[in-house]
Design goal:
Strand order of the largest sheet: 1-2-3-4-5-7-9-10
Number of domains: 1
Radius of gyration: 20 Å
Number of strands: 12
Number of helices: 15
Largest sheet: 8 strands, parallel, barrel
Order of helices and strands: EHHHEHHEHHEHHEEHHEEHHEHEEEH
Strand content: 5-15%
């Protein structure tokens, strides 16, 4: 299955998951540094330092990317490095990304920069975090610092990565930083994250005239177990609303869905929706699995905020990743086709799975089937322009610590030795031939 000749092939990472050096060159604490210190959810005392030690080994890692033939690299910049404690710009923090961008360009790799991948400065969290409207304006300040410095070399910009996780896992379920279980704060975080996206886009347009800019959402197709069962249909609609529509509708339609988190309407101030719905140049789609929902059973998340007290996710007869996630590549086709009429190009900005071992045949099979699913979407008229594998390196995998390995490249965390896996070699051949055989 061949892909368009100009298809973008890349891999993705996030700053907190790979950089380490969390106290170096003026960096302050992020919410994840604080969360790691106090939460038992991060196992065995794991923290984001040293992670994959990318801050020191950046040149080696870029050489690895080049050896695999990557044409693009999606990475995030660490807010606590660039504006420590949410305050003034830190030139030493910007210097690292200066070097990274220059090294990428010297190796013929296009930098795809994500501004926010979950590492809010802890000082801003102590002022309310994403539940505080002011945080959106501090994000605009941060965006100004980055764009003013890198506008001459970076074309592709992403405002936010997966605001669903930041709002709901961080402020409602409490299983991600900052570890809060406050439904009202989660609702506020949804709007303030989307406002940050709108304000960030405004700054990007002002400072980077040539920018190709958008947002990345984790989108999961949601279907009822029995389409004829009203309770299943209602539960699926509620989950789809919280997972997908509450972020897609404001970006593309300038409104929040009426049936999801009614408190959102009280947070909207004049001009907010115009900012949030300003045109984007592309939509990034992160896909890992789909959901089939029934209307009976225990809720997946606290019923106070999910809006579907009896939504349940019955297991199916599908293979599982090491994370326990069901593998259904057809869901990628479904979600891409569902976005076909949104009027913007699409990129798969994350897709991957956790499997052990350097001879990772399971990951090869996962990537093979999902790339075929992406190609099917292209055949159905979807304007899909690129694919980024998650992840380049084994890394600090959030609340899983170092227990789950998503990398194309194995990292021995004791020695920081890098070893390309079988999947990396397979992916390099896909890039070289522009097809899945």
């Amino acid at each position: 299955m061949r892909f368009p000749s100009d298809f973008v092939w890349g891999a993705a990472t996030a700053a907190f998951q790979i950089e380490g050096s969390t106290t170096v060159d003026g960096r302050s604490d992020s919410i994840w540094d604080a969360f790691c210190r106090v939460q038992g959810a991060v196992r065995n005392g794991d923290t984001g330092d040293p992670a994959a030690d990318h801050y020191r080994l950046m040149a080696e890692d870029v050489a690895l990317m080049a050896s695999l033939g990557l044409r693009a690299y999606r990475f995030s910049v660490a807010w606590p490095r660039i504006r420590p404690d949410g305050g003034a710009t830190n030139p030493r923090g910007l210097d690292f990304y200066d070097r990274l961008v220059d090294t990428l360009l010297d190796n013929g790799i296009d930098p795809w920069l994500t501004l926010y991948h979950w590492d809010l400065p802890q000082k801003l969290e102590e002022l309310g975090g994403w539940a505080n409207r002011d945080t959106a304006y501090r994000f605009a300040d941060f965006t100004s610092s980055v764009t003013e410095h890198l506008a001459d070399r970076v074309v592709h910009w992403t405002t936010l990565n997966e605001p669903w996780c930041s709002a709901f896992l961080g402020y409602a379920a409490g299983i991600h930083a900052p570890g809060r279980t406050e439904p009202d704060a989660a609702t506020a975080a949804v709007h303030h994250l989307m406002l940050a996206h709108g304000l960030g886009m405004q700054v990007i347009r002002e400072n980077v005239p040539q920018a190709v800019a958008g947002i990345t959402l984790n989108l999961y197709p949601v279907a009822p177990v029995d389409p004829a069962d009203e309770s299943d249909v209602d539960a699926a609609r509620a989950v789809d609303g919280l997972q997908n529509r509450v972020f897609l509708d404001p970006v593309f339609d300038g409104r929040y869905p009426d049936d999801v988190l009614p408190g959102l309407a009280d947070l909207v101030e004049p001009g907010d929706m115009e900012l949030i719905s300003a045109p984007i140049d592309y939509l990034g789609v992160n896909y890992y699995r789909d959901y089939v929902v029934s209307g009976g059973g225990e809720p997946r998340f606290p019923s106070e905020w999910i809006g579907a007290e009896h939504a349940a996710f019955p297991p199916r007869d599908l293979p599982l990743t090491d994370s326990g996630w069901e593998v259904n590549p057809d869901g990628l086709t479904t979600v891409l086709v569902s976005l076909k009429d949104r009027g913007v190009p699409l990129y798969v900005t994350e897709n991957g799975a956790s499997y052990e071992g350097i001879d990772d045949y399971d990951r090869v099979a996962f990537l093979d089937t999902h790339l075929r699913a992406a190609a099917k979407a292209v055949e159905q008229g979807v304007d899909l322009r690129g694919y980024f594998c998650w992840s380049l390196l084994d890394n600090f995998e959030w609340a899983e610590g170092y227990a789950k390995r998503f990398g194309l490249v194995h990292v021995d965390f004791a020695t920081q030795t890098r070893t390309p896996k079988r999947s990396a070699q397979w992916f390099a051949k896909v890039i070289d031939t522009n097809e899945v055989r």
